[in-house]
Amino acid sequence: MNMKTLIAHFRQNLHFYVALICIACVPCLVQAIEPIATLGQRPPEKHAFLTDQTILRVPYLGPNFQIVDRETGKIIDEFGNRTRGSDIVFSPNATHLATLDYSSASKSTTVNIWDVNTQEQISEWEIGHRTEIAAFSPTHLLFATTYNNEIHLWNWQTGELVGTMAGNRRKREPCYVVKELNGNGIAKYCSRPETNDDMVFTPDGKHLIVASKRPDIELWDVEARQLVGHFEGHTGNWVDGLAISPDGIYLASFESKSDLVYMWDIATRQLLWREPIDETRISDVVFSANSQHLYAADKNVYIWDVKSGQQIDTFGNDFMALQQMILSPDGKTMLLQYDGSFWWGGVIELWKTETRQQLKVFTDFVGGVPKLSPDGQTMVTVDSNFIKVWDIPSQHIRFLISGFYFFEKGVAISPDSKRIAYSKYPWVEVADIQTGNVEAQYRDHFGLLDHASFSSSGKWLAGVNEWGYLFLFDVGNPKEIHRVRINFQLNWPNDFYQVAFSENDEYMAASARTGARNNYQYWILLWKRKGDNFEFQYKWETPEHSGSSYSSLAFASPDDGSTVLAASSKNSETRIWKILPQNAHLVNTLMAAAEPIHFSPDNRYLFTDRYRELQIWDWQTSRPIKYPSIPDYRGISQDGSILVSEDEIGRYLIWDAKNLFLTLPYPVEPKGKQFVTLGQIKRNQLLQNFPNPFNPETWIPFQLVDESHVTIRIYTPTGKLVRSLSPGILSAGEDAMIKVNL
Q1: How far are the Cα atoms of 174, 232, 238, 253, 321 from residue 190, in angstroms, in the given order?
Q2: 650: left (phi over 0), alpha (psi -120 to 50) or beta
Q3: Cα angle 296-301-303, degrees, rounded to a multiple of 5
Q4: Separation CA 266–CA 618 (nearest Å)
Q5: By C-alpha distance, which of 566, 563, 645, 633 is closest to 605?
Q6: Domains of the chain by start residue, with CATH
Q7: What is the mean pLDDT of residues 639-659?
Q8: N or C end of the chain: which has fewer CB within 10 A?
Q9: In the predicted structure, residue 627 carries a pLDDT above the cut 70
């Protein structure tokens, strides 16, 4: 008789019922599968203080504006309706906001004005072009926008065009030029800017100050709608940021490519002082509430005395990619928003401005490439500027690592799930995955880490740096760094891409490329361990493996005692070779796949990623396996316990993979079974019966969260009870098994 597992009824501390329905050879889909945890929150795009205790926040994804508590970061209220990708402009005191939604089809911008206090939409109108920058007047119902060479004024309550500014504007520059003094005079460097243009009204609403891809800052008379003068003296020709002091006396400005801060007298348009900060660039400037101090920031915040131009102090955490710096109405709290720059992410910090002490740091914003530890207890997300280590049981971040531009592949987790390796320019670090304490540093001019992999024993760490060199580290001896030996010449710089180790560190394999331009050849290279060294064995040619962004390598040790290697590629097939003494024998070819790929703990299946959809293969028969579909799949732990995907707004969904794959034809169990507990999320587990199909008997394994009385009930497809078995009271966490004869 064929058999299918379908229903599991559970009543905590009372009874545990298992229902089995006989219908087909392969178990059916488990219905109504839900994630067991959700990690992270939507990343913010922009902030404004409403009061000293509440903040208006606009998330990157999601249709609503959020009002959050300053102390906890919790959402107090949500309102509004925003189109994804629309630009946001706040009024000076955040009493109103505008959404600017550009349509490429109609070549127009739809403007929506919202009253933040009443949470009501005030008006909606269209502008017949794409707005470049915009600003609210602090004193009138005026909304200024720019396009090409024109500045327009609108009544934001009615959407009526009030007028257009007139004046002989200086020519827009095609690129950003920085002038630097050197021994031969002035040198010019042309590059693209990194920040947007800026426009701001003076506090009395009488003037509009504009910095817009021109060599100098413009001063406009709002009532006369005339250009009345320029602030001249910037070394570059694109001024990227402006701030006006609350008393309306001073103007601060900066260029994104420069480390210089400029202070101006607005009434006379005279440059009062120009000073550098101790960093290579500036991202934002803001005045203190009493107009006495100026804050300028990129990685850290620098404080100047406005009148004298003397630097007073500095504070910060040396984070990268500052997106926004704002002050609370009382000027005592500063919010710093740092962007992850790769699928959002980032960090929010709150600081006391008077004592330069950190109040809060909020890190649980989703973004980056997720990686699961082998035991499924830790998730690491990597973006351009931050590595975040998430504790899956508690659903919180354990610690944060920041540094100079991480590559999304430059992180590895040790096989015992106790260590993490990553690139922190200019060296490679190995840290405790629970605490973040650095255990080893490799400082030998390695550069940035583009790919990394621990050996199966954890003794070795292989890394490919940004120039394509392959290195081998002895984890226990940081001073031992080896260039891996090969017996033929590769090209520089992009030689190696991926690296992987087999069980017991017997083999190491790496993918590589030779040739030039459109005449490339792609290879897999194999080394065999002898003592504490890896000796090169042989190489074989493969189809294109797409470079390090999409290719992946994975070893397996089937039951026959052989060693196989799988190599994936987004643009060509996934191939599986058997490793022989003198060569590699191709045993199977599957559909193309991208990273991550790896074998199941029992080596029966190959898990691959095809366009962010999980594909499971019985790789020895080339048979795709049916299973409950999980959209936006991002990875599965090596022990097969936890799977991670993303929801529609980028949050991480954690799935009980064992429960998810109960329907697989064979059990997927790690070597040394572990009972998975995720914080308060606990579940009894009905595991795969075996053998299946069966005749005349089968075994039904299960595990319990709490000590319980267990009853097994078996039903026909029509719901008729055919067998009831009761082994009595069983202890929690034990592997239990019932034999059924049919």
Answers
A1: 9, 20, 11, 20, 21
A2: left
A3: 65
A4: 73
A5: 566
A6: 4-27+688-741 (no CATH), 373-660 (2.130.10.10)
A7: 90
A8: N
A9: yes
What is the rounded distance in angstroms from the CA atom of residue 379 to the CA atom of residue 522?
32
Three-state secondary structure of 382-448: ECCCEEEEEECCCCEEEEEEECCCCCCCCEEECCCCCEEEEEECCEEEEEECCCCCEEEEECCCCCC
Q: Is the peptide bond before 426 cis (omega within 30 degrees of 0)?
A: yes
- Spatial separation of the C-alpha atoms in residues 419 and 416, rounded to whole Å: 8
- Residues contacting residue 32 through CB under 8 Å, at least 6 positions apart: none
H or E, element range at 657: helix 657-660
Q: 504 Cβ partners below 8 Å, 6+ apart? A: 456, 457
> How far is it, in rounded angstroms, from Cα 666 to Cα 437?
41
Does 262 score more than 80 pLDDT? Answer: yes
CA 577 to CA 565: how far, in whole Å?
5
Cβ proximity of 689 and 1 under 8 Å: no
pLDDT tens column, 70-108:
999 999 999 998 888 889 999 999 999 999 999 888 899
**Residue 393 to residue 378: CA distance in whole angstroms:** 8
Residue 660's SS3 state is: helix
Grouping H, G, I as helix, E, B as strand and the rest as coil, residue 504 is helix
Q: Measuring CA to CA, how many Å separate 591 from each of 322, 598, 607, 610, 625?
A: 42, 15, 12, 8, 13
Residue 15, classed as helix, strand or coil, is strand
Residue owning tokens 């990686």:
371
CB atoms near residue 14 (< 10 Å): 10
Helix (H), strand (E) at residue 349: strand 347-352
Q: Which two three-digit tokens encode residue 302?
A: 């620098």
**Contact 385/340 with Cβ under 8 angstroms?**
yes
How far apart are the C-alpha atoms of 57 and 308, rounded to whole Å? 35
What does DSSP assign to residue 339?
Answer: -
Report how far apart, in Å, the C-alpha atoms of 699 and of each of 122, 347, 534, 553, 711 are: 67, 50, 44, 36, 15
CA dist., res. 195 & res. 529, Å (int): 51
Query: Widest CA span of the chain, in angstroms?
Result: 98
* β-bridge mates for residue 78, sequence order: 66
Read off the amino acid at residue 490: L
Q: Coil, strand or helix: which one is 450?
A: strand
In sequence order, the 6+-apart residues with CB closer than 8 A to the CB of 374 are 413, 415, 416, 417, 637, 638, 639
Q: Tokens 């962007």 sit at which residue?
A: 339
pLDDT of residue 281: 82
Residue 12 exposed, middle or buried by CB count within 10 Å (0-12, 13-18, 19+):
exposed
Q: How far apart are CA 291 and CA 455, in angstroms?
A: 58
Share of the chain above pLDDT 90, in %: 47
Residues 347 and 319: beta-carbon distance below 8 Å: yes
* Nearest one of 30, 92, 19, 97 to 58, comparing CA atoms: 97
- Give residue 679's pLDDT: 42
